[in-house]
Amino acid sequence: MVKYTGYWQPNYKPTKNDLVMLYKMKPARGISMNQAAEAVAAESSIGTWTTIATMSPEIKKMGAKVFEIKGNMVKIAYPLELFEPGNMPQIWSSVAGNIFNMKDVEFLRLEDASWPRKLVTSFKGPKFGIPGIRKLLRVKDRPLCGTIVKPKLGLSEKGHAKVAYEAWSGGLDIVKDDENLTSQPFNKFHERIIQTLKLRDKAEDETGEKKIYMPNVTAETSEMIKRAKFVKDCGGEYAMVDILTIGWSGLQSIREANEDLKLVLHAHRAMHGALTRNKNHGISMLFIADTVRLIGVDQLHIGTAVGKMMETKEDVMMVGEEIEGGFVKAKGHRLQEDWHGVKPVFAVCSGGLHPGLIPPLIKMLGKDIIVQAGGGVHGHPSGTKAGAAAMRQVIDAVMKKENVREYAKTHKELDQAIKKWGLYNK
Ligand code: CAP
Ligand code: MG
Fold first, then answer.
1. Domain for residue 4, yes or no?
2. How far does the centroid of ligand 2 lie from the alpha carbon of residue 98, in Å?
3. Among 148, 182, 353, residue to substitute to test ligand 1 (most atoms within 8 Å of Cβ)
4. How many domains, the chain?
5. Mean pLDDT of 140-162
6. Residues lining ligand 1, judged by CB closer than 6 Å?
7. One domain for residues 133 and 114
8. Residues 6+ away with beta carbon under 8 Å from 356
9. What is the rounded average pLDDT of the residues 256-265?
10. Active site residue 281
11. Half-sphere exposure (CA, 13 Å, Cβ side) for 271?
C-alpha cells in the first residue's frame, strides 16, 4: 500500500465552490479506512500511487480533501478548479473514474454529491421540465400515462404506427419506442416517424386530446441529431435517447442541438443496473439523475419499486441523505428539488406496470409522474385499446379518490385488467 499523505483533512470545511462527494467504501484487506479514503481522494484529483518529484505545494492545494469518515461513508471535497465547467465527461472521469478499480478498495459506491452553483449553472438544464410538458400536453393535474410499443422489436413501420394509434385512441397521452428500437431493416426510422405521426394526428383529431410520440433517436451523435431534426421537421415534439449508451458527450450534443430543435427530451436509462444495482459497488441513480438533469433532459426513468425491476422504494423516492458539510439535500424528490433555477424533471415510472399497480405508485410519488406500461397495456385481455383505456380509468379513479374496485364495476376495461393482473393498494 502506498502512503498517500495530505488528503485526510478532518478539520477542512467545504466551501460553497467545492464539489462534495459521498462515497461508501470497503477498504481492501490490510488497508485502513483512512488509507482507502486517501487513495480515492488522490486518484480522483491530483495524485497517483507514489510520491512524484513533479508535485509542488501549489498543486497540492488543489488536491481533494477527505474531511469526514463515518463508518463506511466517506465525504470528499473537490476544489472547483479541478473541473471544467460544462464538461460532464471530465467531471465523471474524475469523481467516477479510475477509483472503482483501485486495489486499495474492495468495494466503492458513489452514493451522492452536492454540486457547487458554478458547476450547476455551467450546464443548460432541462428546456421544458414539468411545467413545459404539462403546458404542451394540456394536462394539468394528473399523472401522464403512456405505453411502449411491444413487441420491443419486429413490427413493421405500419404495424408500429397501428399499435400506437390503438394506444392513443384508448386514452393514453404518450407512446414511445422501446430502448433497442432505432432503425432496423424491419422498421426503418424515417418511415416509422412518418407513419406514426400520421396516426398520431388521426388520434388527436378523433379524441380532441394532445397525443405524444416519443421516437428513439439513439445513434452515433451526428446521426442522432439528424434524426431529431427529422422528427422536428415531421411535426414531432419529443425525442427519446438512451442516456447511458449514448454517453454524456452524446447527451450534451443533443441538448445543445435542442436549443434550436425545441424537442422534449425523454431519458431512457438502459444499462443503469450495471452501475446502480449493487449497493456495495457502483454509482447511485441519484448521481445519474443529478447528471442528466444538469445536462438537460426533461423526463427520466426512475423505476417503480412495485414492478418487474429491482429498485427499492428508497431508490424511487430519490430523496438522498442529509449530507451536512457544505450542503444540505432537499427533502423532496431529487428530480424536482430547487436547484439554482434548474427546471424540475418529470419522473417516469415504467417496468412491469399494469393498471392494478398504478394506485400504490401515485400514493408513493404523487401526481407529477409519468406512468408507462408496455406489457400491462398490450397484454390486456381485450387488446391494446382496452389496455390503454384501463390505464386511463385507474388514474381517473385514483385522482377522483374513488374506490378502485368499485370504480371497476362500471369500467369494464379496468375490471378485465384487475381480473387478469390483480389490484395492489399497498
Ligand atoms: C418496460 C420497458 C422499459 C423498462 C425500463 C422494458 O416494458 O419498456 O424499458 O421500464 O426499465 O423494455 O422493459 P414493460 P426502467 O412495461 O412491458 O415492462 O424504467 O426501470 O429504466
Ligand atoms: Mg423498454
1. no
2. 30
3. 148
4. 2
5. 98
6. 148, 150, 152, 178-179, 269, 301, 303, 308-309, 350-353, 373-376
7. no
8. 394, 417, 418, 421, 422, 423, 424
9. 98
10. no
11. 11
